[in-house]
Amino acid sequence: MRQATVYIDQQALQYNLNRVKQLAPTAKIVSMVKANAYGHGVKDCLAALKDSDAFGVACLEEALEIRELGYEQPITLIEGIFSDDEMQIIIDKKIECVVHHQQQLDWLRAHKDAYIAQGLKVWVKLNSGMNRLGFKVPEIIDVINALKAEGFTCVLAMHFANADAENHPLNDQQREQFLHVKEACAPIMGSCCNSAAIFKWPELNFDFVRPGIMLYGATPFADRSVEALDLKPVMTFTAEVIALNTIQAGESVGYGSTFVAEQEMNLAIVSIGYGDGYPRAFPKQNYVSIHGQKTRVIGRVAMDMIAIDITGIHAPIGTEVELWGKDRLVDDVAEANGTIGYELLCRMSARPVRKLA
Ligand SMILES: Cc1ncc(COP(=O)(O)O)c(C=O)c1O
User: Fold this and answer.
1) Do 208 and 268 share a structural domain?
2) Which residues participate in the annotated binding site for substrate?
3) Residue 229 covered by a domain
4) C-alpha to C-alpha distances, 219 to 159, 271, 281, 332, nearest whole angstrom
5) What pLDDT, in 10s, does the model give residues 94-125?
6) Span from the CA of 209 to the centroid of ligand 1 (angstroms)
7) Which mutation among 49, 99, 159, 174 tests ligand 1's pocket best, with the greatest number of atoms within 8 A of CB?
8) Domain that holds residue 331
């Protein structure tokens, strides 16, 4: 059987959840499990994240999957509902919504009594400069005060555009607007911290923190490694050596013949490619790990195969090669590919076999 395997380390996930608890001891934790738990597989991840206070997802379908798996914690739809007919379903299934535009408010008000009777909170989204979703200041103050007067329990919600950046001027603007609205609408619960903000601004943890990438053991920062953040990688992505070749100086390998050997070298062909979610671009040299030994990827990544340099390395057919995981961090693979760990994790294909570590 072709071996392209994704191992999920549930203990690492629990470790990372505990890191959130250490960093935000008084806040409730809304574990972000959208996009199939950042590509890790929501079922296995929920089992490890079962002590979370709540879950965050991007759409109703993702929320219903959590309910079908039997979890009863609150769930927040971070983009709210997309059409009126979703409102009755979320009320029945006890799913909470963000509201970020007038039409969503109308839909909510049309179901006011049932929504409130289920004990559901409304997450009112502030647009403080990211300019994706939300009401701006001062409109949001009227929106929240009206909802409160109607009997809704509200959470002021915001998302930082540059929480990963050290000194971005928008951070101050967003923080100030959030604090201003929170005061103008007091008392109100608040939530504005994703992973990077949890690390950087403990004073902004408030009632709910919303960790995503840190749970999965990848870094939200360009310049702080998971080791420095004391997080453990959850996903290990591996494949096997399926063929061995020796090529001479002047010979090339793979599509486009982009790599030409300067001297004799030993290659291993590994059963992994972009059809599995392994990226193809690699503007920079990429590496894999064989039992902790780093070696380079040679030539182009194909749909099902890559070539790696095993000159001087013992790697017979069947040897396991780590594409990313604990030895070769997904953050480093992402960097070589001109992207971020988030993207590589989320775009895993369905083809690799999934196993628990
Ligand atoms: C509204 C919201 N909150 C929290 C998160 C989690 O962010 P991160 O994965 O950087 O922790 C996201 C992710 O995109 C989000 O959209």
Assistant:
1) no
2) 132, 303
3) no
4) 17, 27, 21, 10
5) 999 999 999 999 999 999 999 999 999 999 99
6) 10
7) 159
8) 235-356
